[in-house]
Design brief:
alpha/beta; TIM Barrel; 4 helices; globular; UCP030820
């Protein structure tokens, strides 16, 4: 069973459905289209409030002309060891300026959620039983130190060891 989680807790009645050949959105649901299907729909209509799923091999920069028409971008994590969706999320937030909902779908594990939050992902389609249990108990693992800047600053502020200023000479 898939549940949608945000930092405020689990979301009831989420309307978004990843469409496939077997699964289609009903009248009360909204489709998350593939990148090619989204581009085709956006080219033939002026619809807004669209949703798209970005797969690891997709070129996320193709979304640039349509970002203002998207309500949600889902980035796919097909396996725990495929981190290309982290790069997609970072590109969307930092370089392309996407500000609407950014969702992780696929193999969403509890120990990766804090890192996903750091790159700007703000909702999660969770199926993993351990992750569901820990999230329901409000138990996210902590990461005390960060070595790179991201879409979300570290709690202690922007202090990175590699950004030390050189000592002033007297």
């Amino acid at each position: 069973m898939t549940k949608i989680w945000r930092e405020a807790g689990f979301v009831e009645n989420d309307p978004w459905v990843i469409e496939t050949d077997e699964v289609k959105a009903s009248e009360s649901q909204k489709p998350l289209l593939s990148l090619d299907a989204l581009i085709a729909k956006a080219e033939e209509s002026n619809d807004v409030g669209l949703g798209v799923v970005i797969k690891p091999a997709d070129d996320v920069t193709k979304l640039r002309p349509y970002l203002d028409r998207l309500a949600i971008v889902a980035v796919a994590f097909p396996a725990f060891n495929d981190g290309r969706a982290f790069s997609h999320a970072s590109l969307l937030r930092e370089r392309l300026g996407y500000t609407n909902e950014l969702r992780a779908v696929g193999d969403v594990l509890i120990d990766q959620i804090p890192l996903m939050l750091r790159v700007g992902i703000d909702s999660f389609a969770v199926t993993n039983e351990t992750a569901l249990k820990r999230l329901s108990e409000n138990r996210l693992p902590g990461i005390p130190h960060y070595y790179q800047p991201t879409a979300r600053p570290a709690e202690a502020g922007q202090a990175y060891s590699w950004r030390r200023l050189p000592a002033k000479s007297a």
